[in-house]
Amino acid sequence: LSFNWDPLYERSYRKLKGISIPNKNLGFGKGFCKNALLKLHGSIDWGRCKQCNGLHMSDRIEHIVYGQKCPSCNSDNLTITHILPVLTKFENISRTDNYPPYRNIWRCATHALSEAQEIYFFGYSLSDNDAHAKIFLKSAIFKNINPNLKLYVIDKCCCEDLQNRYKNAFEKKIKPEFIEKTFKDYFINDSV
After folding, report:
1. Distance from the CA of 17 to the CA of which of 10, 121, 131, 171 falls in 20 to 30 A?
2. What is the pLDDT of residue 63?
3. DSSP readout, 103-146?
4. What DSSP line would sit under 35-55, residue for residue?
5. What is the pLDDT of residue 64?
6. What is the DSSP letter of 175?
């Protein structure tokens, strides 16, 4: 799960799996997704065509709407599909005319968190500025019935403020473990 719009996640997934990412591996289908890369705010390389309503992922690093025509109908009507962390976020997620279908992406993410045995937060501040994310995460994690659920927070600076935000959010359910390392150092030394 990621709140990041960065297209490098898709490219890393493709490289690790040796495949291209079908839409179902991004949560675009109607059912629950297993082994999916769920980008809860969308991605800067996703574009929807206003003319044919198709969703397209760019193979370039640049944003899909910059100078790229729709591969299906050749129109110049590609629009950005990511969601900003603003007060209307849940309204945008629940709209049925959205494509990609954010409602299903978030539903798949809730399902994944509610069945997880371990949850890792990498460099995520759990900011009070994105109340929707906090509500979503708390709700999904509190639905988890796994008695051995473990929650890890990996950040280069696990300051007291960060620890308090996590403890206040999840301590009734689980006590988070804090690991003060960079993302790179964590995987080099403590590979999961």
Report:
1. 121
2. 57
3. HHHHHHHHHHHHH-SEEEEES----TT-HHHHHHHHHHHHT---
4. S---BTT--TTEEEETTT--E
5. 58
6. -
Q: Is the pTM of this model over 0.85?
A: no
Partners of 78 in the beta sheet? Answer: 49
Beta bridge partners of 122: 154
Distance CA 149, CA 115 (A): 9
Residue 8: C-alpha distances to residues 26, 45, 125 (Å) = 14, 10, 20
Structure-model confidence comparison of residues 169 and 43, the more confident one: 169
Hey, what are 74's tokens?
């050749």
Upper half-sphere CA count for residue 192 (Cβ side, 13 Å): 11
The Cα–Cα gap between 161 and 53 comes to 44
CB-CB contact of 56 with 71 (8 Å)? yes
For residue 155, the model assigns a pLDDT of 94
Residue type, 91: E
Spatial strand order in the sheet of 150-155: 118-122, 150-155, 177-180
Mean pLDDT, residues 50-68 taken together: 69
Instruction: Map tokens 């910059």 to a residue.
Output: 66
DSSP class of 34: S
Work out the number of other CB atoms within 10 angstroms of the CB of residue 15.
9
Burial 20-56 (b: 16+ CB within 10 A, else e): ebeeebbbbbeeebeebbbbbbbbbbbbbbeeeebbb
